[in-house]
Every structure is written in C-alpha cells, then in structure tokens.
C-alpha cells in the first residue's frame, strides 16, 4: 500500500467497473451492462483528472464535489484534460444512475466504480473505518501522476475539488 504522489507512475493494473451511457438505457431506472474499464491502458496516453468521493448520492459529494467538476468541464478541457472521471465504492449501477441523475449523457465525466475500494485501498486512500473510497483527486498526464492530494478534513474540497485541481494544471 503506497500513496501515489506527484512524479510517480500510475499503476499498470488499475481496472474499474463501468456502465457506458447509451440512449437505450438513458432513463435513470434503466440498467446497462457493466464492463471492465482498464484505466491503466485507457489513460496511458491521455491527461486525466480522477476524483474520488466516499459515495454517490451523498451530501457533500452530490451538492458540492461533483457539481464543481460538472461546472468546470470546459475549463478542464481548455487546460488539456482529455478525461474527467469520478470513482466511488458504489457498484456500477449506482454510479451510472448518479451520472444520469446529474444529466451527464456523454463521456464528459466517467462514473466509475471502485469495487470494494480496491484501488483506493491500494494507494492507502480508503477510509479505514467504513472501507469506502476516500475524498481525493489525482491528475495523471500520460501515465505520470502530476497531482495527488487527499482531504483530511471531513466535507472539505480544498484539495480534491475542481478549483484545487484547476489550480494545479
């Protein structure tokens, strides 16, 4: 269990679970089919912002954290970001519904599941008490971590919010 830090390579074995948005399953009550999303492969030649939340549909995550990224999608793209992704310990069905509830019907933000907080635990950023993913943000630029920080204050977005990540780019 090693915490990722700026200058590190992004691990080569990171896979999340994901339900790609389709018009056929666009209704919030419709279920798509989960697929594996090999982040290590998909992100190897891209600039990526990955932010993690303790849970979909939870207060800080839904009211402040995710909305900051939704509102700043254009500014992130202008800074050269190819992919914005959010992870939580929730299953892919909940993550898909969270994207639909927030009217994300394209790939401007990927809603990925970190089952059992496997990735977050591997970097030491899962909550020990709950087993959930921590609240953190990473910037990965062509396989190299250029920004990595975790919130230590409950409900804070000083390190993992869109404004902090934009300032780091």
UniProtKB/TrEMBL annotation:
Query: Known PROSITE patterns for this protein?
Result: THIOREDOXIN_2
Gene3D superfamilies given in the database record: Glutaredoxin (3.40.30.10)
| InterPro entries for the chain | PRX5-like, Redoxin, Thioredoxin-like_sf, Thioredoxin_domain
Residues forming coiled coils = none
| One Pfam family hit | Redoxin
> Can you supply one Gene Ontology CC term for this chain's record?
mitochondrion
Q: Which residues form the Thioredoxin domain?
A: 4-169
Q: Where is the active site?
A: 61
MF-aspect GO terms: thioredoxin peroxidase activity
Q: What are the entry keywords?
A: Antioxidant, Oxidoreductase, Peroxidase, Redox-active center
**GO process terms (BP):** cell redox homeostasis; cellular response to oxidative stress; hydrogen peroxide catabolic process; response to metal ion
Oxidoreductase listed as a keyword: yes
Question: What's its job?
Answer: Thiol-specific peroxidase that catalyzes the reduction of hydrogen peroxide and organic hydroperoxides to water and alcohols, respectively. Plays a role in cell protection against oxidative stress by detoxifying peroxides.
- Which family is it part of? Belongs to the peroxiredoxin family. Prx5 subfamily.
Name of the protein: Thioredoxin peroxidase
Question: What is the organism of origin for this protein?
Answer: Talaromyces atroroseus
Lineage, highest ranks first: Eukaryota, Fungi, Dikarya, Ascomycota, Pezizomycotina
